[in-house]
Amino acid sequence: MPRRLLLTEEQWARFLAVADDERAMVRYYTLSRDDLDIIALRRTPHTRLGCAVLLCYRHHLADSRTG
User: Fold this and answer.
1) What proportion of the chain, given as a percentage, has pLDDT over 90?
2) What are the tens digits of pLDDT across the range 1-59?
3) What is the pLDDT of residue 31?
4) Distance between CA 35 and CA 3 in Å, rounded?
5) What pTM does this model have?
6) Domain ranges within the chain, ordered by starting residue
7) Would you tell me how many other CB atoms lie within 10 Å of the CB of residue 44?
8) Rounded (10°) CA dihedral 59, 24, 26, 43
9) Cα separation, 19 vs 31, whole angstroms
């Protein structure tokens, strides 16, 4: 059975693009107080860092879906 494409090439490119201007970096990679509280619940520095990265990724994903 052939694989079904969920996103177009343009959508993939926009989804995987890294923010390159200061305004976009602040929008995607600044964590709120709620985000920091979620991160603080993790036990080790490694899992806290991973959680922070996933939250930033979530911000970027949510914005790329609407834009």
Assistant:
1) 33
2) 677 788 888 888 877 777 788 988 888 889 999 999 999 999 999 999 999 988 988 88
3) 92
4) 36
5) 0.65
6) 21-66
7) 8
8) 30
9) 15
Answer for the pair 52, 31: CB distance below 8 angstroms, yes or no: yes
Residue by residue, DSSP assigns 3-67 as: PPP-S-HHHHHHHHPPP-SHHHHHHHHPPPHHHHHHHHTSSSHHHHHHHHHHHHHHHHHHHHHH-
Q: How far apart are CA 50 and CA 55, in angstroms?
A: 9
Return the half-sphere exposure (C-beta side, CA atoms, 13 A cut-off) of residue 34.
2
Give residue for tokens 């602040």: 26
Packing angle between helix 33-40 and helix 45-66, nearest 10 degrees?
140
Tokens of 29: 């990679």
